[in-house]
Amino acid sequence: MAECNVDELLAKAQQDEAEKLRSITVHKELDLEFDVGNLLAIDNNRIETRDFKGQNKEEFLRSLARDNTQLLINEIWKLPTERVEEVIVAKLPEPTTLLPREKRPPKAKPATKWEQFAKLKGIQKKKKTNLVWDENAKEWRRRWGYKRVKDDTKEWLIEVPENADPNEDQFAKRVTAKKERVAKNELNRLRNIARSQKGKVPGVGLTPTAQQSKDDLGRAVTVAKTSTASMGRFQDRLPKEKPAKNMGKKRKFEPLIGDFSNERQKQLELLKVLGNKTPKLDITKAVNKQMREEDREEAAAKYRKGAGKKGRKGNNMSGKGKGKGGKGKGVKGKGGKPGGGGGGGGGGKKRSKAGKH
Amino acid sequence: WIHLDKTRQSKRFLESRAPKLTENVKNAMIMKGGNTSQVVSQTLKNIYSLKKPTALLYKKKNITRPFEDSTSMEFFSKKTDCSLFLFGSHNKKRPNNLIFGRLFDFHVLDMIELGIEKYMSLSDVKGKTCPEGTKPMLVFAGDSFNTDNEYKRLKSLLIDFFRGPTVSAVRLAGLEHVLHFTALDGKIYMRSYRCLLKMSGCRTPRIELEEIGPSLDLVLRRTHLASDDLYKLAHKQPKALKPKKKKNISHDVFGTKFGRVHMQPQDLTKLQTRKMKGLRKRKGEAMADEGKKAKIVNGQS
Fold first, then answer.
1. What are the Basic and acidic residues biased-composition ranges (chain B) (predicted)?
2. Least CB-CB distance to B159: which of A38, A89, A103?
3. Each residue of A34-46: pLDDT tens digit?
4. Using CA atoms, how far apart are residues A234 and A199, in angstroms rounded to an integer?
């Protein structure tokens, strides 16, 4: 009897459950595909056109929509919920449908100069607090900005340091120093951007830095001079300024269609040289070579003597001086007069020797 | 170019438009062509109200033909940072025409042309409509959405268009709006319903639907679908978004978490267990035992 009761009770309980769920169960041949993250449901069941045409179209569509929506709501109600500000909220999972992006994925930015250095040294970024305790004002002040802790600009008294000029304006000095720092920062920022985009960065010397050497200034001047429409040919020069050497171009090529007679002569000479059985002797080159050999031998001899530091230093200097002197005199066009070349070479040699001592 | 972000506001503006790991909601531009009918203009206005905060409605007519020349679309998308568009036009050859399109990297990805056969606008609806900006539930019915290539792309485009911002949680009482798309007999029926949650016996409510506008009967006309490799490129996700796999952790079918620990080979005789002094063998005994064993072995052999 008890068993019957239990069975009956179980059957009744099941029936009750079924009743309860009847209002929300929907029978479908194929289960729907759900993407709850996007609140999306896809029904792949075939729709019978007979049903569609038979009934009122709208009613059919509405009942179909109701069934599908019921199934989607059932899925959503299975999600974990929480209470946020008196409202019950269901936490959605990540959307599973693959949709195309709007733009390409971002490229990794190349590290700035500082970031590279910090990585190399292992320097970590330290998070700083926004407010700092100010002893003078006895309150919390900003680290930077309006009413900051250490504000240079508000000082009414600046002591003149011992080694400074008494007539110098210290306040103006502070202002200009600040401007320079700002400009330098801006320059570095732009340089970082240019480097990241592989743009052309103007070379050293052309952008102003604090200390510029004579070479940098010279280079800057020449670049500024040649950046006119006529390549600097009509720019005025200072009284003692020498015309600049050819700073950029290293080779000069003859124009393709230029002087025909010159070209013809050059080609004929070339053929002659190639056809020659005996090798051509370039006097200047020979002389220079000889001189260099002699210098080398002298230097080696001195070194072997074991002069010490002085000797080595002297050697270096002598080598340079002699080389310059000899070459400087030697460059007088190809194959100058043998006598002149020899005499020049000899004279040059003598002069440089005198210069050494 | 560099000088654009001199102020913090402009910097924020540029950052919002720059390519990102997780992108913003896609904005849509809704525009009219050279000639439009009342049906088309009303439909455009209704769809604009459906997609309200993330859509732009252009008032003036634009005399372009997207299928022939997509440069003006690309120009507009660059100016307004919109990657979806809806272009409505009307002429004798293609009456009541709607072109849904999307762009990738400011170039046209897909364009699908649909013709409106029958429509009902928002203003014809008697009941109360859903508030602006509710995230709609999307339902697609009909097996052609899964089988036919063009329908598959159309489904993806419609999801992209109507889904709204991706949220982590949704208010259960706020699930009011349902957009239902049915593909049947070469036609696509779009219906929009308001969802009423009624009491049922258990926790999950019973759904009753109330029709609100707009409702459209659409016919698929021309399509301009992206090539397979461009489509693949558009779907490429940046590596940083992939969830990092934790090594030596696996999950069971039942959801049990298993871990793997790698050990060095252990000498079990040298294990430090509980010491019981009484049981410890003394030196002499141990040797005697060994000797006994050896004798026995010898004897047997």
1. 284-293
2. A38
3. 999 999 999 888 8
4. 31
For chain B, which residues score pLDDT lower than 70? 1-4, 241, 282-301
* Separation between Cα atoms, residue B63 and residue A124, nearest integer Å: 57
- The sheet carrying B187-198 orders its strands as A33-35, A40-43, B137-141, B177-184, B187-198, B206-224, B107-120, B97-104, B84-89, B28-32, B55-61
Please list the residues that pair with B212 across neighbouring strands: B192
Nearest CA in chain A to B237: A105
Residue A217 to residues A204, A211, A224, A240, Cα–Cα distance (Å): 10, 10, 10, 17
Can the peptide bond before residue A105 be classed as cis, meaning omega within 30 degrees of 0?
Answer: no
Judge whether B63 lies within some domain: yes
pLDDT at residue A318, rounded to an integer: 46
Quick one: pLDDT band at residue A304, thresholds 50, 70, 90? confident
Q: Does B104 touch chain A (CB under 8 A)?
A: yes
Does residue B117 lie in a domain region?
yes
- The CATH number of the domain holding residue B46 is 3.40.50.10480
pLDDT tens, position by position, A169-180? 889 999 999 999
Residue B6, in any domain of the structure: no
Is B116 within the bounds of a domain?
A: yes
Top pLDDT among A316 and A9 is at A9
CA-wise closest residue to B216 among B83, B55, B43, B80: B43
SS3 A148: strand
Beta strand residue intervals within chain B, DSSP E = 28-32, 55-61, 84-89, 97-104, 107-120, 137-141, 169-171, 177-184, 187-198, 206-224, 249-251, 257-259
Binning pLDDT at 50, 70 and 90, where does residue A307 land?
A: low
Is residue A132 exposed (0-12), middle (13-18) or buried (19+ Cβ within 10 Å)? middle
Contacts of A24 in chain B (CB under 8 A): 200, 202, 204-206
Contact A77 B235 (CB under 8 A): no
Give the number of domains in chain B.
1
CB contact under 8 A, B203 and A99: no
The predicted pLDDT at position A347 comes to 41
A76 CB contacts (<8 Å, ≥6 apart)?
A: A36, A39, A90, B170, B172, B175
What is the C-alpha to C-alpha distance for residues A175 and A170, in angstroms, rounded to an integer?
9
> Chain B residue with minimal CA distance to A105?
B238
pTM of the entire predicted model: 0.63
Closest chain B residue to A39, measured at CA = B137
Domain coverage including residue B134: 24-224
The alpha-carbon gap from A178 to the nearest alpha carbon of chain B, in Å, equals 19
- Which residues 6+ apart lie within 8 Å of B20 measured at CB? A103, A106
Q: Quickly state the pLDDT bin for A345 (edges 50, 70, 90).
A: very low
Among A residues 4-33, those touching chain B with beta carbons less than 8 Å apart: 19-21, 23-24
The mean pLDDT value for A5-12 works out to: 86
Sequence-ordered list of residues with C-beta below 8 angstroms from that of A26, at least 6 positions apart, any chain: A67, A68, A70, A71
